[in-house]
Amino acid sequence: MTAAIESSALPLVAVAQPELTPVLEPLRDHFRLVELDALSQDERRLARAIVVVGDQEFGQSQAKAFPNLQFVACFTVGCEGIDVDWLTAQGIAFRSDPGSNAEDVADLVIAAVLMFHRRILEGDTITRQGRWRPDRKLVSRSASELKIGIVGLGRIGTAVARRAEMMRMAVSWWGPRSKPKAEWPRAGKLLALATQSDALIVAAPSPAPGAPPLINQEVLEAIGSRGMVVNVGRGALVDEDAARECLKSGKLGFGYFDVFAEEPTPPSSWADVPNTLLTPHIAGVTTASLRKMRTCLCHDLEAFFSAN
Predict the structure, then answer these.
(1) Catalytic-residue membership of 263
(2) Which terminus of the chain is more exposed, N or C, with fewer CB under 10 A?
(3) What does the pLDDT read at residue 7?
(4) Are 76 and 142 within one domain?
């Protein structure tokens, strides 16, 4: 068994999560991909590289099953579940690709902003329910009237800002650190940004473990009944209980959530919450972004095996 494994023409790559297997299928021409549950003891001993997703834990307790592990590749953009410091201390190389899907996430953000402020969902409901009155036009807001506030001016935040600006929206942002090269004004405080924004876009990285949600009830109420919150960052950034309360009471106009504190999010938590749009963490999942991520992963794995 061991001799057969060692003589295999393709390098062995362990796959940590079953959901990765169909996504990585095109890489089978380059590597022998084996899910963890299918790995034999000999394969676990010989495996030097593993592919993981960033929102699931991978550190000392998981790595101990691979005595010869040298390389951990994170397929997803976020890698908050990976103990990078521990891997580095053990001499285990780590890679991730933080920029593959920023443009696609930004596209969906702008779509959500227009959906609410141009009253698209409301118009669809009125039409389907036979409440269309030619003498009562459904008046919406022009993009040129909207003020967009972005929490976190990283790759996604910057991509959102550029799109919003091209559509004549006023853009400002907030983050804990200033960015001297930023093209848009930075609000003095998060609460000030929320107060002035028609749409508050949450695109910040994961908070520190145990930190309270950045977007709390005070921030949500500051957005107001004519505004919306969009979370494409991380679920822990928004106080979901407070968001549901504000949406039910009308203190917040609309909420679009693509990420959640618990994923999958319990449907019962949102069953009676009005004025919401929920998607299952798909903002960055497109054929183009997956192709880019696979290409980067393939290059990184090939470089690792060529050097080792």
Answers:
(1) yes
(2) N
(3) 41
(4) no
Catalytic residue among 117, 155, 163, 281: 281
CA distance 241 to 260: 11
- Candidates 275, 212, 210; CA nearest to 246 is 275
In CATH, what number is assigned to the domain containing residue 7?
3.40.50.720
Is 136 known to be catalytic? no
**Crossing angle for the helix pair 102-117 and 120-128, nearest 10 degrees?**
50
Q: Which position among 234, 240, 244, 294 bears the catalytic label?
A: 234
Q: Does residue 29 share a domain with residue 77?
A: yes
By DSSP bridging, strand 276-278 and strand 32-35 are: unpaired
Active site residue 30: no
Q: What is the pLDDT of residues 133-179, one digit of tens each?
A: 999 999 999 999 999 999 999 999 999 999 999 999 999 999 999 99
Q: How many CA atoms lie within 13 A of 58 on its CB side?
A: 29
Q: Which domain holds residue 110?
A: 102-278
Here the tokens at position 117 are 């402020």
Q: Are 267 and 238 in contact (CB under 8 A)?
A: no
91 & 110 share domain = no
Q: Give per-residue pLDDT as tens, 176-234.
A: 999 999 999 999 999 999 999 999 999 999 898 899 999 999 999 999 999 999 999 99
